[in-house]
Amino acid sequence: MVLRVLRVVTGVLLGVSGALMYAASGQRWGGACPWVGGVDDTLCALRQDHLYDFLAPTLPWEPVGAAAQLAGWSLLVLALASVPLPWALLGRRPGIASAVALLCAVLAIGAVGIAIVRSGLTGSVVEPVGADVTLFVWALVPPVLLVRFAVASRGWPLGAAVTLILATPLVASFSYAIGPFDAQPWWEAVSGLLTATAGLCLLGAAAFSGRSVTPERRVVHASAALAGGEHDLG
What we know:
Structural class: mainly alpha
Oligomer: single chain
Keywords: Membrane, Transmembrane, Transmembrane helix
């Protein structure tokens, strides 16, 4: 019961984080670039410039609408969802090494999220606490940790772990975030959809995953059946 509640809470938080990131992407690309085609249009080509990046903004930077604020809040919700994530994926608490890495990841995601929100509110780039070290941890530790969790996961939780890996900025920067000029239109929305999909996978795990039948339970069930048979013969 506790595991189901954890999965529901984590799944909902991931869904909220993904929705916020999708909305942030809409602030940048909406009205400038269609989902399919049109990347060579003048306004769309202009908006692909890294000048408008908000994950994370670097100098020089030009904010677009509330993209940065929405993206920052998305990361803050993701940091909150990451706290119970190992339990939701594995059904048990993480080991010491994974717990330390998780703590670093949560703090880095939260710090970057706060910096992005502040950047959006002030209209100028605000570096996170820890500067480059924090950005390094934010970019590298979560995907490595998620790969570790994916290896130990099965079923719905495995789907959640894989989609979260695909949603990370590290994977995006080598794949679907690469555009014909600089950034691929709507790539942040793709990341948000992947994050929300991970949330749906955890909700699926909470709804449909039954209790696993361990060898010990098989022995108990077999013993009970044998005892019942002997009683009937008697």
